[in-house]
Amino acid sequence: MAYDIKMTLEALRTVTLEQATKQPVRPERAVYVAETSSNLRPQADQLRRELRQHAFAVFPCEASPATGTAYREFVANQLGQASLSLHLLGDEYGTMLEGETRSAVEIQIEQAGLIARTGALRRVLWLPEQFTPSEDRQQRYVETLLQEAANEPNTELLRTSIENLKAYVLRKLAEVPRPQASGKPVGAPLVVYVIHDQRDAEAIDPIRDCLISVGHEVKPSYFHGDEKELREYHQESLVQCDATIIYYGATNALWVQRKLYDLRKAFGLGRQRPFLAKAVLLGLPLNQEKERFRTQDAMVLSVAQGFSAAALGPFIGPLTSHS
After folding, report:
1. How many CB atoms lie within 10 A of CB 268?
2. What are the CA-CA distances from residue 48 to residues 10, 30, 32, 136 (Å)?
3. Does 180 map to a domain?
4. Are residues 48 and 127 in the same domain?
5. Is the pTM of this model over 0.70?
């Protein structure tokens, strides 16, 4: 409890800075210092203080949620406001949140990796020079992480003293502004991410064929495979696609609203530009819930009376003007 109160008071400094200047904190002046295991909290707190002394904003800038799902969303949002994330790995695996089987330390590293892949964040992983894990799970996790980090874009792994780490971070922050996501190659097709329920896999076939026929690349939803890989595919598609269709067929309005919320979260995951077009496409079976469906977050179109290319016209139009 005392540590949570301390963290909240420290975080208020970042909020106060933003309010005082009446301007959002510039990402190139913002650093995400990840929550870490209890044995490394003094070092993490020292880093936060010194970064603030150098006029950097430090995130997280508010108390974090206690449940896994809410925590992931919170971390993605906070990471999206920074140019660099810093993760201290120690001898302990760390605390697991309610509803989670992995520690908060691991979740933050995973979320930062997703954004780093887009080019919108530099992720720095740090290990002390004398690393002696006190748990088998931590040993296994770090060994796997070291193998994966070697091939991850915008990820740097340091095994040095905490003083060398501080010097390295300050030097990197002074070098260049926030890296930007790589642009689309000239002439490359626009990418449309079609989000749908597994039961509607066949129903989206004519939609996919229509979009491909006018020169667009289509990313469908996937349902079989490792849960982590499926989640990463969904998040990366939200960040990288040019436009998206949410197909409202066999599912319900709550499912659609959750997917619309995912579109808003994409900017916290590292998306750098607005969607060219967003649509909720009403399909069979037609019912009163669908007839009443309205949203300001996307255009609402219907193919419930049968598919036709004309039904996608309002969606394809904005894409054509950007092709």
Report:
1. 19
2. 9, 11, 9, 29
3. no
4. yes
5. no
